[in-house]
Amino acid sequence: MGRVPGTAFFPSFANFRRDSWRATCQVVRTMPYQPAATRYDNPALYRRCGRSGLRLPALSLGLWHNFGDTDDFANSRALVLRAFDLGITHFDIANNYGPPPGSAERNFGRMLQADLAAHRDELIISSKAGYLMWDGPYGEWGSRKYVLASLDQSLQRLGLDYVDIFYSHRPDPETPLEETMGALAHAVRAGKAIYVGLSNYNPEQTARAAQLLRELGTPCLIHQPKYHMFERTPERGLLDVLAREGIGCIPFCPLAQGLLTNRYLNGIPADSRAAHDPRFLKPEDITPARVAQIRQLNALAQARGQSLAQMSLAWVLRQPAVTTALIGASKVSQIEDNLGAVKNLKFAPEELAAIDGILG
Ligand code: NDP
User: Fold this and answer.
1) Which residue, judged by its Cα, is nearest atom 13 of ligand 1?
2) For the chain, what are the domain ranges?
3) What residue ranges in 117-202 does DSSP mark as E strands?
4) What is the distance in A from the centroid of ligand 1 to the CA of 82?
5) Which residue, of 106, 108, 218, 231, is most buried by count of CB atoms within 10 Å of its CB?
């Protein structure tokens, strides 16, 4: 630490000032987090999830990227706390998020304990099981053995007694659907989850799973598909099934991992996902043709008075079946920008036609 101002001629006083300065820094560092009193000032932010009693914020924060042990914990914590201050009550995670797998749950667990313990009942926390977590035949997919063991491990890492939503992360082609759905229902009966959800199930699998879950007395709350302007598969049947079944929809990667923002308009910035963590968004996917589309979409967003990120989020939220868009963020400013989307969720038919034209 540098010299404390105004102490040059009084060494003992200087020591006192320095010690008290250090103590102040310590207090600031360990001061308990106080959420913003204004966080629920916008009740219109919350939208009913299907035909359930639960309302979710129009934007939810996912912890897939930027929450692992390889990331800066202070930044991860700032993202979560700023989101909560702005009214985002839903945080989505999975057993395998990291890297390494499990570390995102552990890091989020630290925040829950240190900062958010007093607010547990204000939070909707989801986790999932489906992808590889441990060696041997019981470490992935949809067997009752794996699903329930994975949930116990997630709860331990999160430091929670229950999650609010527990998902089957992907359909298992080899395990009877009855078994996987039975495991989800068991988690609810055991008090380890409040609601259950499905992710990456196609329309037929979703309809069958919904029927089974209804029979088991634990109706499916929500479905998590990949849905954004460049990935419109859910429009071919899934959204209809969800509307018919009264299941909410939480599209993941609504910004196409950052492609549908101003991030890649002029090259690949060093601090972007494509540059520093290209596991799932590869620089070679950012082709000149893609960038040309993004630039046209950006011009359209500007004409609407929105950032491209805001227009892309409004575009998924325009679907009546969609409850909340599941965003990721690497910076607090991105969450702030994205929340601006809710100021204009309406599209004129000509705007939708123009978007379709750009997307081809
Ligand atoms: P997005 O499509 O929202 O992409 C997030 C990225 O976009 C950020 O990391 C950031 O990129 C960039 N970004 C976000 N906002 C802005 C902004 N306003 N301006 C500029 N750039 C912005 O979502 P993710 O791909 O992160 O996925 C979201 C969540 O979906 C995950 O955390 C997870 O919870 C869930 N998910 C579920 C899956 C499943 O199988 N069920 C699979 C994948 C994800 P940068 O880092 O470059 O700054």
Assistant:
1) 258
2) 33-359
3) 124-129, 163-168, 193-199
4) 16
5) 108
Residue with tokens 């999830």: 49
**Ligand 1 center from residue 189 Cα (angstroms):** 32
Q: Please identify, by atom number, the ligand 1 atom nearest to the C-alpha of residue 334.
A: 18
Q: Helix (H) and strand (E) counts for the chain? A: 12, 10
Q: Which atom of ligand 1 is nearest to the CA of 280?
A: 25
What residue has token string 């596991």?
279
Report the atom number in ligand 1 closest to the C-alpha of 325.
3
Asked whether the beta carbons of 272 and 264 are under 8 A apart, the reply is yes
Task: Report cis status (omega within 30 of 0) of the bond before 269.
Answer: no
The strand pairing partners of 60, in sequence order, are: 326
First to last CA, the chain: 58
Q: How far is CA 21 from the centre of its chain?
A: 38
The values of phi and psi at residue 198, to 5°, are -125, 145
Q: Does residue 170 sit in helix, strand or coil?
A: coil
Taking alpha carbons only, the member of 333, 313, 344 closest to residue 59 is: 313
Burial of 333 from C-beta contacts in 10 A (0-12 / 13-18 / 19+) = exposed
What is the per-residue pLDDT across 263-283, written as a single tens digit (0 to 9) for each? 999 999 999 999 999 889 999
Contacts of 49 (CB under 8 A, 6+ apart): 55, 56, 221, 222, 248, 323, 324
**Ligand 1 site, CB within 6 A:** 62-65, 92, 169, 199-200, 224, 252-258, 261-263, 272-273, 309, 326-330, 334, 337-338
> What tens digit of pLDDT does each residue of 112-168 get?
999 999 999 999 999 999 999 999 999 999 999 999 999 999 999 999 999 999 999
Pairing label, strands 124-129, 163-168? parallel
* Confidence grade of residue 16 (pLDDT, cut at 50, 70, 90): very low
Q: Which residues contact 292 (CB under 8 A, 6 or more apart)?
A: none
CATH assignment of 33-359? Answer: 3.20.20.100
